[in-house]
UniProtKB/TrEMBL annotation:
PROSITE patterns: HTH_ICLR (PS51077), ICLR_ED (PS51078). InterPro entries: GAF-like_dom_sf, HTH_MetabolicPath_Reg, Tscrpt_reg_IclR_C, Tscrpt_reg_IclR_N, WH-like_DNA-bd_sf, WH_DNA-bd_sf. The keyword Transcription applies. This is Helix-turn-helix domain-containing protein. SMART domains: HTH_ICLR (SM00346). One of its GO terms (molecular function) is DNA-binding transcription factor activity. The keyword Transcription applies. Residues 78-260 form the IclR-ED domain. It holds the Pfam family HTH_IclR. Coiled coil: none annotated. GO terms for biological process: negative regulation of DNA-templated transcription.
């Protein structure tokens, strides 16, 4: 039972999708038990058996729940993917934090750590330098991957099929006069990034700001994150000259700490 407070909130929230909320409630109930029958889920959710059955069937088709041979229901294998994905996100932050602090101290610039979520890049951690007054994205902020140095460098180092599916989902938007606005130019940019090993962003997302980013790999050799130094767009060239090696070395240290071993 959700209780009176939930019912009041439900009535006041005009954006709440009732059917989705009920399905999520079923998943929440299942997460507390080894398995439950249709009747038990109906009783515990205060929903009719017909409604619960239809929701469970939909969830089962999408691997969010599994129906056992005895007719009882358990959480599905899709949650293993979510668990691994979320765990990897927080693992890389924990591992990267001290290395990022060292890089931030050395280069005196803001340092960002980002990961892909669908076709967008999310800033999951940042280190702020007291010497740098550059305004940067908050942790949790996200942007289309094609519009950032971190997004571009990750896509350049993903397997071709995986990267291609993400690139095909882009609706390229012009944020500034420097923005990449079509697939052909973006693919050309990725080729250059693969050759150089790093990506830059000069006024592409925000006018006046820039970044230099390099890839981070996990223990499987998958490019799982990116490390970037943020600067004014006018300073990108000098940053590459003065700090690229330190940026790459820091990313390599993080990758090694995550278990990555490059081919000999």
């Amino acid at each position: 039972m959700r209780g009176y407070l939930w019912e009041v909130t439900m009535k006041e929230d005009k954006y709440l999708l009732t059917s989705l909320d009920n399905a999520l409630h079923l998943l929440d109930i299942l997460s507390h038990y080894h398995s439950l029958s249709l009747a038990e889920l109906s009783r515990m959710s205060s929903l009719s058996k017909t409604s619960v059955f239809r929701m469970l069937h939909t969830l089962e088709q999408n691997q969010y729940v599994e129906k056992l041979p005895d007719g009882r229901y358990v959480l599905g294998i899709k949650f293993l993917y979510f668990e691994n994905n979320v765990a990897a996100r927080y693992d890389v932050v924990t591992i990267a934090r001290p290395y990022m602090a060292g890089l931030c101290f050395h280069c005196r610039n803001v340092v960002h750590l980002g990961i892909l979520n669908g076709n967008r890049i999310i800033t999951v951690h940042k280190e702020i330098s007291p010497y740098d007054l550059t305004v940067t994205a908050r942790v949790g902020m996200n942007a289309p991957a094609y519009s950032t140095a971190m997004g571009k460098v990750i896509l350049a180092h993903l397997p071709e099929i995986e990267a291609g599916a993400i690139i095909d989902s882009f609706a390229f938007k012009k944020y500034s006069t420097s923005s990449i606005t079509n697939k052909k130019d973006f693919l050309t940019a990725l080729q250059e990034i693969r050759k150089s090993g790093y990506a830059t962003d000069v006024n592409e997302r925000y006018q006046g700001f820039g970044a230099v980013a390099v890839p981070i790999y996990d223990h499987t050799g998958h490019c799982t994150a990116a490390l970037s130094i943020i600067c004014l767009s006018s300073d990108v060239s000098s940053l590459v000259t003065e700090n690229l090696l330190e940026l790459k070395n820091t990313a390599d240290e993080i990758s090694a700490a995550m278990g990555y071993r490059p081919d000999p």
